[in-house]
Amino acid sequence: MKILVTGGTVFASRYTAEFFAAKGHEVYVLNRGSKPQSENVRHICADRHSLGDVLKEYSFDAVLDVTSYNENDVRTLYKALGDFGSYIFVSSSAVYPETLPQPFREDMECGPNSVWGAYGTDKLAAEEWLRSNVPNAYILRPPYLCGAMNNLYREAFVFECAEAGRPFYLPKDGQMRLQFFHIGDMCRFMEFLLDKQPEQRIFNVGDPETVTCEQWVRLCYAVLGKEPELRYVGAEVPQRSYFPFYDYEYVLDVQEMSRIMPKVTPLTGALNEAFLWWRGNRELIVRKPLLDFIAKNFG
To answer: What is the reported pLDDT for 299?
Structure first.
């Protein structure tokens, strides 16, 4: 197929472009050219917010919109496209209000989430515009993505702590649950959608199994063959100042995804991939001052 991937230079969009290029598809990436490009993709150099007629000459079998954050992003892209077949938009689990009963299902009414704020409401506005204007578009709602090319300071933070032999500070009792999804599995699910073209248009995607914060940290340390020295921090300390996730526990119901793609990559496999990539790409990590806060406040 001839596929357009928005972005294509960082984490999810870069992995997506390389995944489909490796499968033999003709992959185009749309970005400003400010970062190195992947091999085996064709670069369309443009700012997605001022595309003009740059895309009108192209015809795509599929558009994989991995980098839209709001209604304007999807509207601008759609209006700039020439002919295209399938459209897949990567939205977010942040579209579900935290007040809904869990696990969240695709048929639940979406709305503002006080934890995610504008990020969630902007993603929801993008979804709603797509559903009104591109009714055949597919919408994916993942939890936390993980795996190779993850430049966010999540697994990388734990790997750094493990490598240095630091104690690890967990929020409260360490039992807050987290749900992840391997970036490769998200690409495989896109592949299933393009091949099978199911009638359902919105899918929660993610690992059916959740883990606690403590389990996640232990798994990350185990990748380096280590055991963490765990210390627990009370609720009076802002969690995001020393830990990479919000104080927010949620679970997605992914039964609809599982009917199409029953097998997912175990979290241990995703973490091993993340470690191997991190080990050779440390300079690409977007760090946050978590270690500075820990050194200053915990000794």
So the answer is: 77
